Amino acid sequence: MTKSQADEANGQRRRATLSRDAWIVAAASVLERRGISAVKIDVLARKLKVTRGSFYFHFKGLKDLHESLLDTWRTRNCRPFEMIAERTDLRAVDLFNVVCAVWVDERPFSPSLDLAVRDWSRTSRKLAAEMSEADDLRLTLLKRSFLEMGYSEDESTVRARTTYFHQIGYYAISYAEPSAERKRLQPIFADVLLGKPQ
């Protein structure tokens, strides 16, 4: 077997074993680092060391991949808050702590994916509306927690926004902090953000 034949055989094996998820993971990595405009078939094929044919084995086209990326974001970054909203056992401080734990634990929440989709949403009205809905749910959960702690309507709104914007800011400036340190400081952040109703 010649070298070119061996390379072709290796490429075919690679195509056969490369999964749809591998493409999505590679695409998410590009999305998070360079934005949606950089998520291109040729770029991903080079990154994965396969031909374009491998892509079309798994996806109908780029739009299909884009939707898969959004499904990943919905599962990792939206579903945890939807599950909290469905719970009836969480009240006041407990609700606040469970919401914040999604961000602090980052399991499965992905800050970099959330920021990338937020940037992407600036180019799509449909996605902007979906991102707005995600923001609204997160803010609603926080506001509910403050209302149940006894704060007024307006103060609950402001405290919810302060908590949420603080969280987004953490990611927006790419603040580097070891996970253990962030978890250590979380109770202090909570004390500051919760305060005491007047």
Automatic annotation (TrEMBL):
Residue ranges of DNA binding: 40-59
Database matches in InterPro entries: Homeodomain-like_sf, HTH_TetR
Lineage: Bacteria, Pseudomonadati, Pseudomonadota, Alphaproteobacteria, Hyphomicrobiales
Domain HTH tetR-type, first and last residues per copy: 17-77
Pfam families tied to this protein: TetR_N
Superkingdom of this protein's organism: Bacteria
Protein name: TetR/AcrR family transcriptional regulator
Transmembrane segments: none
Molecular function as annotated in GO: DNA binding
Entry keyword set: DNA-binding
